[in-house]
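Hey, can you fold this one?
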Amino acid sequence: MANIDDLIKNFGIIDGDFHSLDAFDFCGVYIIYDPNEKNDVVYVGSAYVRTISQRLSQYKKTYDTGNSLMHAICKKDFNVSKVSDISNEQKQDAVEKIHKLKIKAIKHKDLEYQIIQESNPKYNTAGVQIDTTE
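Sure. Predicted structure:
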C-alpha cells in the first residue's frame, strides 16, 4: 500500500475533504486516503461524466445508489459478503468513516488505473473496484 505523499510528487493536486467538496468542481481522478493511518491510500476513483465533487457527494450518503466506497468498506471492514446484507447501522458506520478521510484530486483524463496499480489501495482490488452488485 502506498503513502499519499509518494503519489503526489509529480502532479498538480487539489487538496480537500468531504466537508469541502466545492474544491473539486472539475473532472479527473481522485485519491482518498486515511490521515489517521499513515496517509495510506484507501480508494482511487475517477469522474469524467460528472465533476469529482458530484461523484464524491454520493459517498456522503447512506443509501446504496452510487456509494461504491460505502459498499467496499462494509464488505472489507465489516466482513459483509453481499451488498444486500449490509445493515443500516453498518452503512452509517461506513459513512462516518468516509467523512474522516481526506481527498486529493488531479485534473487528468486517464490516471485512475495507473494510480491503483502503483498504490494498491485498501478498497480497490487488483486495479478494479470491489463488485458491489451482489
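The chain has a mean pLDDT of 84. Let me know if you want another pass with a different chain boundary.
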